[in-house]
């Protein structure tokens, strides 16, 4: 009987030793890249994924009132700027960010809107919360600022400034100024026209130059917006 148990004992002991040996043995490493160029590509893709995810979390926090207006605006502007820099530097690897989001099944509707469609924080797109705006005692100051930003934007077009990276900041400032004026209706033509062009510019590469027709249309739309604005605050 004892002899009958010996092979079993050896087998059990050997199995345990083999299991311990397997546990202590390191798994083979999977190389994601072989060259520095391949590593740079992976880093760029990881940075893009991380940045989009961060914006999505920030937008969620804003809608849940978990972050203040000033902190949200500051953080969002910084992330949008970083996104544009990353996007411009990785056009060969990620020619279409929208397809990148779809391919990697990213659940980021808010970030997609903020980065790819509008390109400005929600506080600029929609204005400050109504309670804050209604309690503002500086409405005349905001009206004056809006007039100045309107004139600046129109002057840029008259000076034949066509590059997206030149025009977008002025449109962003104008949108922010309009949203500070509490009496301006949400659907007022001035706000609608400025937002339309803000979206159009954001969908173009930073190096894109407006064609003659686009420049003419943008000038016409902004002048129309200013004329409607002036009827209220002349």
UniProtKB/TrEMBL annotation:
<dbReference type="InterPro" id="IPR037206">
    <property type="entry name" value="VPS28_C_sf"/>
</dbReference>
<feature type="domain" description="VPS28 N-terminal">
    <location>
        <begin position="9"/>
        <end position="126"/>
    </location>
</feature>
<dbReference type="InterPro" id="IPR017899">
    <property type="entry name" value="VPS28_C"/>
</dbReference>
<dbReference type="Pfam" id="PF03997">
    <property type="entry name" value="VPS28"/>
</dbReference>
<keyword id="KW-0813">Transport</keyword>
<protein>
    <recommendedName>
        <fullName>Vacuolar protein sorting-associated protein 28 homolog</fullName>
    </recommendedName>
</protein>
<feature type="region of interest" description="Disordered">
    <location>
        <begin position="1"/>
        <end position="21"/>
    </location>
</feature>
<keyword id="KW-0653">Protein transport</keyword>
<dbReference type="InterPro" id="IPR017898">
    <property type="entry name" value="VPS28_N"/>
</dbReference>
<dbReference type="InterPro" id="IPR038358">
    <property type="entry name" value="VPS28_N_sf"/>
</dbReference>
<dbReference type="GO" id="GO:0000813">
    <property type="term" value="C:ESCRT I complex"/>
</dbReference>
<comment type="similarity">
    <text>Belongs to the VPS28 family.</text>
</comment>
<keyword id="KW-0967">Endosome</keyword>
<dbReference type="GO" id="GO:0043328">
    <property type="term" value="P:protein transport to vacuole involved in ubiquitin-dependent protein catabolic process via the multivesicular body sorting pathway"/>
</dbReference>
<dbReference type="InterPro" id="IPR037202">
    <property type="entry name" value="ESCRT_assembly_dom"/>
</dbReference>
<feature type="domain" description="VPS28 C-terminal">
    <location>
        <begin position="138"/>
        <end position="234"/>
    </location>
</feature>
<dbReference type="GO" id="GO:0044877">
    <property type="term" value="F:protein-containing complex binding"/>
</dbReference>
<dbReference type="InterPro" id="IPR007143">
    <property type="entry name" value="Vps28"/>
</dbReference>
């Amino acid at each position: 009987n004892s002899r009958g148990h010996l092979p079993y004992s050896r087998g059990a002991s050997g199995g345990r030793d083999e299991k311990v040996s397997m546990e202590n043995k390191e798994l083979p490493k999977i190389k994601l890249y072989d060259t520095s160029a391949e590593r740079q590509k992976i880093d760029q893709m990881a940075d893009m994924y991380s940045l989009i995810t961060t914006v999505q979390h920030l937008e969620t926090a804003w809608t849940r009132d978990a972050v203040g207006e000033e902190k949200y605006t500051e953080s969002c502007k910084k992330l949008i700027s970083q996104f544009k820099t990353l996007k411009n530097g990785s056009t060969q690897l990620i020619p279409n960010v929208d397809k990148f989001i779809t391919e990697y099944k990213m659940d980021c509707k808010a970030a997609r809107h903020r980065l790819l469609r509008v390109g400005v924080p929600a506080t600029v797109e929609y204005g400050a919360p109504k309670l804050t705006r209604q309690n503002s005692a500086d409405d005349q100051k905001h009206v004056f600022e809006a007039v100045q930003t309107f004139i600046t934007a129109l002057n840029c077009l008259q000076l034949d400034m066509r590059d997206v990276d030149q025009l977008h900041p002025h449109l962003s400032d104008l949108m922010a100024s309009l949203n500070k004026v509490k009496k301006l209706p949400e659907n007022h033509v001035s706000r609608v026209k400025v937002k339309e062009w803000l979206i159009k510019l954001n969908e173009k590469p930073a190096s894109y130059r407006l064609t003659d027709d686009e420049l003419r249309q943008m000038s016409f739309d902004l002048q129309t917006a200013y004329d409607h604005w002036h009827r209220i605050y002349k």
